[in-house]
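Anyone have C-alpha cells for Carboxypeptidase regulatory-like domain-containing protein? Sequence:
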Amino acid sequence: MRPELEDQGEYEPLDSCDERILSVINELHHRDDPLPEDLNERVQFVLELEAELDARVARVSRSSELVPTRGDADLVVGQGDPASVTFDCESVTVMVTPRPSALRELRLDGWIGPEGTYEVELRSPEGSRRASTDESGRFALEGLPDGQMFQLVIRPDEALQREGLPAVVVTPAVRL
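Reply: yep, here.
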C-alpha cells in the first residue's frame, strides 16, 4: 500500500471522487434496469392481499399468446386475435378473453368455475370496476383501457364458500 493511502480507512467520509463513482453507477441503473412504472401498484396489491386473511392467489395457465416481459413480472396478451387467459387456484378457475370494443378500449368477457354467483372486482391503475356473474359464472366488463395492467379479485357467494371455496381469489396482474 502506498504510504499516502495508509490513513484512509473504510469508514472515511465520502469525497468528490466517491460521489462521481456513485453517480455513474446510479445512471447505469436508471438506464439499463429502470424501476417498473407500475411498481407502486404492485406494492399496493401485495399490501392489500396481505390484508385479506383468506385470500388465495391464482396462477396463470400460460398459453402461447402470453408474452413474458421483465423477468416474468408482467404478462402481456399478444396482438391479433383475442387470446384467452386462464387463472387457476385450488378449487376456482377463471378464464378471461379481451376483445376490442371501441378505439383503444376493451371488453373483458369472463367465466368462473365452478358455476355459481361471484362478485368480480377488476383493479387497474385507473381504479376498480365491479361486476357480478350470472348463475353460470359468466361476467363482462366494458370500456377498459387497452394496454393497462389489471388484476381480478373474485369473491364467491356464501353458498359456494360453504361448499369449500375460498372467500377471496386474486389473480396475478396481466397487461392487455
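The first helix runs from residue 16 to 32.
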